Amino acid sequence: MASMTLKEKLDKIQSPNLQSQKQTAVVLEGIETAFKERNTTASSTAYFAALLSLLDNKTLVTPVVYLLDVVTPFTPEPLLRAKFTQILTLLAPVLTQPDADAPLIKSSIGCLESLLLAQDATAWEMSTAQVGPRRAVGGLLSIALDPRPKVRKRAQEALKKILKNPPPSPSIDHPASPMCAETCMQSLKLLAEKASQSQKEKKAEPTQNPELIHALQLTKAVAAASGGWPSKKIESLCELLLGIARSGNEHMSMAVFDIFEMIFEGMATDEVASAKLPRLVEIIRELRPSPNDTQLLPPWIAILSRAYDVSAQVSPAETFQELVEPFVMVAGYLESEAKNIRISASECLVSFMANCVPQQVLLEPTIYDEKVIKQLVKTMENLLTAKYQAAWMESCNVLGAMYDALRWRASPYLLGVTKNIGDMRGNDSFTGKAEADGVLGKAIRAMGPEAVLGVLPLNLAKPVRGEPGRAWLLPLLRDYVSNTNLAHFRSELAPLSAAMFQRVLDHGEAEKTMEIKIYETVVHQIWSILPGYCDLPLDLEEAFDTTFAEMLSNLLYEQIDLRLDICRALKAVVESNQAIADTPEDDDLVLQSRITKEAAKKNLEYLGNTFAADFLSVLFNVYSTTLPQKRGPVLQTINAFLSIIPSERLTETFDVVCEKLAAALEDVPEKGAKDKNKNQEQLPSTAHTLMDLVVTMSIYLPKHSFDPLSKIASLVIFRDDDPQLQKKAYKLIPRLADSELGKATLEQNHEQLQALFLSSAEKVSAPARRDRLVAIASLMPFIPNTALHFIPAVLSEVVISCKEQNEKARTAAFDLLVMMGHKLAASEGALIDNSKVANMPADAPMVSASLEEYFTMVSAGLAGSTPHMISASITAITRILYEFRGSLSTETMADLVQTMDLFLTSNNREIVKSVLGFVKVCVISLPVELMLPRLATMIPNVMVWSHEHKGHFRSKVKHILERMARRYGFEVVTKHCPEADRKLITNIRKAKERSKRRKEAAKDGDESDGGEGQEPTKRVGRFESEYDQALYSSGESDHSDNSDGEDAPKGKKGARKGGNAYIVEDENEPLDLLDRNALANISSTKPVKAKRPNKTKAKTDLDGKLILGKDDDEEAMDIDAPQGGEDDTGVGAYVNALKGKDAPRRGLRGKLKWSNRKGNDDDDDEGGDGMDVDEGVTQAFKARGGFRGRGDSRSRGPSEGRGGRGGSGGRGRSGRGGRGGIQAGRRPLGQDKQHGPTMRGGVAKGGRGRK
């Protein structure tokens, strides 16, 4: 962003937004008035002189100094040098007053900054005793420790800028750098001693020391500005900073790290400052803390790591040769009992390997480099001994970093370590298998599978006695193999796969055993490794020969389960070489994994000339026999080989496909056969398959192949009886627009394509509408200014598509409308020949392209004959108005608003629904001064539809009124609202006030709970575009205050404080939030306690015998015994059936409804809504075992009582009958059913029931 000129800054001051700036504007106006009276030119020098004369006026000191701060950067430097003493003398009282206002001090600092930047080397030689630049810098250093944040920050910024811009002199450092460094050191030392003394006396906590943090910030600013700290003061600074870091205060430690980072950063970027680096590294190593110091040792290790990182950037070879000593020293800390020390040490060792191993060691190592590698590996071997057992995870991280750093040079040095890790991993009792798998995976990626399998063989086909099988290596090989020798797969893994598969074949058709299933799994795992071998292989031309290609082709045909892996492998072998061949930079063998650009191009040429055509034939056949949901990988592989096949072979292949497609289009499938297999999974027709292949091949075809391509498109596009085929034809144009060759083809043949689109408009099917719109949008950038008549020709189709039911089609229509608008705006002034537009007269005048003309074209649909067309036109106008509102003239927008205001009076709901969307967009986005005059008629017209409840009209009107009130004020909206409808405005206003009070109350609650430290959460957008948000957002709800009071949920009282996260912890042990695995116990959903199974007593009958196999539902139907202590016998049961919680109630139109409320003792598992008795009274009564009126007991058993009046239980087992019946005994277990008189218990006095 360009900086503002003096005139722009002064103009901004003359129109102040704040009350405090008005005095400054008055002073500036007085100065400019004086200029006009004296005919003085308003230059920076004139402003400077005028303000200097006013500086003595104590009442105007604040605005004058503010204006001086604005003017001095534009004042000539000689003038500033001449007036330095005068200005400094006048500003000194302001800077030294402790109670001076912060704005005045900030302006004074700005003036001083400009004055000091203008001083030459001679002025900087003056001592601090004289009134000169050094004294001014001393004042800035004291202000840089001011307790006020803005004042302190402004002073530090001024110092940084001054030190970064030294005066012209032989010295590179600024003359004031030593002085600033000395002052910072003194302040740091004094404050550190004070803080240490306070902690000893326990007067203050470590976190309550802001003065020391301010001093550290000042030190950081000076270190960042002066290109590194002065060499003579580095040692004392390091000692002082490490002492501060010892305090254990996290804020102090971070500030110390920042200072060292600034010093190192200055050394890394400045060649001269980097000369101080060896001394700095030596000092840091000399300040080595005690091995058991858990507070100081981790920060010291981090600083040491950063020091060697910078050293490796400055002198990589020397740093690598000196790496053994610090590596051994830091590795010793992994023996520490303190976990934080072990973690810091491992991170330092990882940093050493990642940053201090130069590329030269990998490409052409010297003898000394190899010795260094051997010593590092020896140290690494010691870390895997029992002595470092507590640091197993940290050691694995270091070993993984060593594999990643040494890459292919890790072999043979790390083979012994790899074998040790593999042997430990194979032990069943070993607990660190996950870490071991990660290390072995990195070993496979670095050294290659051949080296790793040499020391850790699989032992699957021919197991060696005493050696374990290592099938667990296969998933690691799948995930980590790349950039290796493909010949190893052919010689080792392919024969192993064949041997495993032969065992499966030998099993025959018998039922598969577990062993056979394991063999099949091993086969699949082996072939899943092939894509890794094909990812940039080192021996492509030697290993990928005709025999291997034939084997892959046969597998593609015969083994359906292996197709995915083989397709991925073939795709990888092409695309990995293409990535290297297309690299714009020069060869970087480490980055390119030892494959040069020349070798990659040679590999691609070999594949294209030798195998591409044959593989494409195989893949075409495989594609035609693959189900649609599994065709993706095959098509991607076809696309990869099409990109490397020679042009002549591609043309031949395309001609063959075209011939077959023409024949397939002539063969129309019988409708009966199609309907017969409608519900069965079947392959697409041959025409669909061939059309997919044509679309895929299109971007690689030469220009002369466009004619047959266009013939295919013209044939298929008119096939409205096959929408899927039509969709594929329309996808041709977007596909062509993705390649440079395709773009040239579209640009050259745009007229032919335009004619094709216009002639096929009546034949487009509904499913293909979206693809047609996308195709037109892809063609739009290639239409020249001489063919702009295509836009009005297709405009009506695009407008009517804005009302499509398919959301993707509507989105494509909106995007195309916007693209057309941008096209006409970019072509402003070009002529549009309307005589070439369909349904326009031959003598139609030519018009000039512009945005206004585009809106006129779209507005023509407002005169449509159907409400659907009018509604679509309004929707289209709404979209383009929102997009181009900043480019349209005020008159055009006013006319549109006036026109839509008239449509609000329409009686058609479809039209009015679109107009309400237009009104909402206008209220949100159009200028206030444009909309205010229209509100007098717009608001009454809108309010008419507030009484319409269909189609959500009432809620839409309410949201529009909320937006109006927010933007124009409640007074304006109420003024124009009809008297009868003002209750709605009052409701909105009160809801907004309630929401505001709730927010303030919630805010006060947060502050009282200490919530000021919480950062506000970012609102997540629910809409894909700004237009969707403007059109479909629901008023206040998008601004976090629910103004729609009637829509607010009643059960929730205010928003829940904090985030939507819950801690899941054990009842006996609280969650350790410092644990690495603590994140696994944080849930985004409220945890529910698992219900413990209730222990109930065993159930017995009256004889004391156990009752088994009886669930709660059966007991609910059993009425042998009273339940729940209620009086369920006789009259009690009758009253309970009439008025109890399970009794039916009269609902709408007199229908009986069952209650769906369940009490604590309700064992009924049936769901909720209740059932009309008119539809099934008997079934409902049966399900609930409820009251049945006159008893109709038909149960047979030991007591064959006939239910009397008021009987309960109906058709269940009969228990009680009539009034006061005696309970009959239940049949014991094992006793047969008996019919006849009761064997025990009395017979109830029967009522008049029917048997």
Automatic annotation (TrEMBL):
Keywords: Nucleus
Acidic residues biased stretches: 1161-1175
Positions in coiled-coil regions: none
Gene Ontology CC entries for this record: nucleus
Segments of skewed composition (Basic residues): 989-1000, 1088-1097, 1146-1156
Segments of skewed composition (Gly residues): 1204-1223
Family listed: Belongs to the RRP12 family.
Cross-referenced PANTHER family: ARM REPEAT SUPERFAMILY PROTEIN
This protein's name: NUC173 domain-containing protein
Gene source species: Lasiosphaeria hispida
